[in-house]
Design a protein that fits this description.
The chain is an alpha/beta fold. The protein has two domains: about 1-150, Leucine Aminopeptidase, subunit E, domain 1, CATH 3.40.220; about 175-475, Zn peptidases (Aminopeptidase). The chain contains 15 helices and 17 strands. An eight-stranded mixed sheet has the order 7-8-10-9-13-17-14-15, sandwiched between helices. It has a six-stranded mixed sheet with strand order 1-6-5-2-4-3, sandwiched between helices. α3 packs parallel to α4 (about 150-175). The longest helix is centred in the middle third of the chain and has 22 residues, at about 150-175. The protein is elongated, with a radius of gyration of 24 Å.
Length: about 475
C-alpha cells in the first residue's frame, strides 16, 4: 500500500473513502462532509465508543466515523487499533484510496500510529494460497494522512517501520519446510545497507560454539550463524547488540513436545525475525547508531545423532553446560550468540526469544517478559516498549535463581528440573554469557503470534521490531 501525507482537507483529496475519529464529549471537528457526519452523531449512529463504526455517503465520498473513546485515554496504541478497524470497513466497502483525517490536536505520534495500524492490518499471509480467501482480497491501495501541518517525515518513517514489521511477519508465517535456517540467512543477505556474514555448521563448530552446534546436530538442515553489521559513518553512542533466537522448527528434540499445536513451533524463530526486521528498518531510516545483529538459526530435531539429556556441552566462552532437557534449547542457542556479540564489541545487549511457555502464564499476550542486569538499560527498553505499544514487564533477577542451575557434573545446568520460576531461571542462565555488558532479555512467547489485536489478529505479529527500532533511535 502506498502511503502519503497531505495538508489538503479530506474532501479535496482523490480518496474515495475518508476515516474520521470521534471522541467522547466532542463533535466532528471541521466537518467537511456537508454536515452529514454531524447528523450521524446527532442521530446516535456514530458513537464515540472505541472501535464503533458508522458510515455515510456525501460529497461523492464514503465517510467512516470511528469511535476513539475518551480523548484523555487516547494514545498511539488506540490509534493503531482504530486504524485497523477502519481499514476493515473500508475493505468491505471496496475502497480504492483511504484518507485518514488526523484527529484535531493530535501529535505526530498519532499520525504515525494511524499509518502503522493501517499497514499492519493490511498484511495478509497469502504467499502459499493458490487462490486468496475472501478476507485476503485486495483492499485500499493508497493511504492518505490529512492534517493541517506537514506530516511527511513522520508518515514516511512509520511506513518504513510497518513494512519491516510485515516483512518479519512473512518470515514468521512461512512453514518450516520453506523457512529453513539457510533460507532465513538468504533473507538476511537481501537487506540493504547492512553487512551480512553467514556461517554454517563447520563455521559454528570452528568458533567453539558447542551449545549452538549441539542443538543443530540432530537436524539434516544446515544451521546458520547470521552476523549483521550496520555502521553508518555518522554514528554516535554505544554499539547496540541485537541477538535473536531463530529455531526454525522446534520439536523439542529427544525431550519431544506433545503433538498438540506442534505446528506452531515454526514460530520459534520469532526472535530472529524481529532482529532482522529491526535491522532492515534501522538501515532504511539511516539512524546514526552502530548496530550489531546476531541470529542463531537451527532446527531442533530428534534423530540418531541428536543432543541427549545428560550430555555436557562446552559453550563458546568455555562454560560447560549439562543438558537436562533438550527442549530447553533456545537458551543454548542464545548462550553462544550472546558470547559472540560480546566478543564482536557489543556495548549494549538485547536478546529476543520465544523462550518459555511460563511467561505466557505470568503475563499473557499483553506484555513480554523483561529481565535485565542494569537498571538504566532496563528502563530504556521499557521506555521503547511504551513508546511503540510493545510492552515489556520487568521481572527480578537474584543470585538465588542462579543456585537453581547448579549441575552435578558441569559448570551449569540448562534448567531447574522442578521448573520453578522457569522464565527467570532461563534468563539467569543467559546472563552468564553477557560479560559486563549491560543486557536485557525479552521473552516474547506471548505476543509473538496470534496476538489478537485488530492489526495482528492471527499468525506472526512481528513483535519486537518496533521496540528495537525505537531503542536504536534513542541511542543515536
Amino acid at each position: 500500500m502506498e502511503v502519503e501525507a497531505t495538508t489538503f482537507l479530506p474532501v479535496d483529496t482523490q480518496a474515495d473513502t475518508v476515516a474520521v475519529g470521534l471522541f467522547a464529549g466532542e463533535g466532528i471537528a471541521h466537518d467537511t462532509s456537508g454536515g452529514e457526519l454531524g447528523a450521524l452523531v446527532e442521530r446516535g449512529e456514530a458513537r464515540p465508543k472505541a472501535r464503533h463504526l458508522a458510515q455515510a455517503y456525501a460529497q461523492a465520498k464514503r465517510w467512516i466515523v470511528v469511535g476513539l473513546g475518551e480523548r484523555a485515554g487516547f494514545d498511539a496504541e488506540r490509534a493503531r487499533v482504530a486504524a485497523a478497524v477502519a481499514l476493515g470497513r473500508a475493505r468491505e466497502l471496496g475502497a480504492g484510496m483511504l484518507c485518514w483525517e488526523v484527529p484535531h490536536g493530535a501529535g505526530d505520534e498519532i499520525a504515525a500510529a494511524l499509518v502503522q495500524g493501517t499497514l499492519l492490518a493490511a498484511h495478509r499471509a497469502d504467499r502459499f494460497r493458490s487462490v486468496p480467501e475472501e478476507d485476503d482480497r485486495a483492499g485500499p491501495q493508497r493511504l492518505l494522512v490529512s492534517a493541517h501541518h506537514d506530516l511527511g517525515d513522520a508518515v514516511a518513517r512509520a511506513g518504513v517501520v510497518a513494512a519491516a514489521v510485515n516483512w518479519a511477519r512473512e518470515l514468521q508465517d512461512a512453514p518450516a519446510n520453506a523457512m529453513t535456517p539457510m533460507a532465513l540467512a538468504e533473507a538476511a543477505r537481501g537487506l540493504e545497507g547492512v553487512e551480512v556474514e553467514v556461517e554454517g555448521r563447520a563455521g559454528i563448530v570452528a568458533r567453539g560454539m558447542g551449545c549452538l552446534a549441539a542443538v543443530a546436530q540432530g537436524a539434516e538442515e544446515e544451521p546458520a550463524l547470521i552476523t549483521l553489521r550496520y555502521e553508518p559513518p555518522q554514528a554516535t553512542g554505544p554499539v547496540l547488540g541485537l541477538v535473536g533466537k531463530a529455531v526454525t522448527f522446534d520439536t523439542g528434540g529427544i525431550s519431544i513436545k506433545p503433538a498438540s499445536r506442534m505446528a506452531d513451533m515454526k514460530y520459534d524463530m520469532s526472535g530472529g525475525a524481529a532482529v532482522l526486521g529491526a535491522m532492515r528498518a534501522i538501515a532504511a531510516l539511516g539512524l546514526p547508531v552502530r548496530v550489531l545483529g546476531v541470529v542463531g538459526a537451527t532446527e531442533n530435531m530428534p534423530s540418531g545423532r541428536a543432543l541427549r539429556p545428560g550430555d555436557v556441552l562446552r559453550a563458546m566462552d568455555g562454560t560447560t553446560v549439562e543438558v537436562l532437557n533438550t527442549d530447553a534449547e533456545g537458551r543454548l542457542v542464545l548462550a553462544d550468540c550472546l558470547a559472540h556479540a560480546v566478543a564482536l564489541g557489543a556495548e549494549r545487549l538485547v536478546d529476543l526469544a520465544t523462550l518459555t511457555g511460563a511467561i505466557v502464564t505470568a503475563l499473557g499476550d499483553t506484555h513480554c517478559g523483561l529481565m535485565a542486569d542494569d537498571d538504566g538499560w532496563a528502563a530504556s527498553v521499557e521506555d521503547a516498549g511504551r513508546a511503540t505499544g510493545e510492552l515489556a514487564w520487568r521481572l527480578p533477577l537474584h543470585p538465588e535463581y542462579g543456585e537453581m542451575l547448579r549441575s552435578r557434573v558441569a559448570d551449569v545446568a540448562n534448567l531447574h528440573e522442578q521448573r520453578k520460576a522457569a522464565s527467570i531461571v532461563a534468563a539467569t542462565f543467559l546472563q552468564r554469557f553477557t560479560g559486563d555488558v549491560p543486557w536485557a532479555h525479552l521473552d516474547i512467547v506471548g505476543p509473538a503470534w496470534d496476538l489478537g489485536r485488530p492489526y495482528a489478529p492471527k499468525g506472526g505479529s512481528g513483535f519486537g521490531v518496533r521496540l528495537l527500532v525505537e531503542l536504536a533511535r534513542s541511542l543515536a
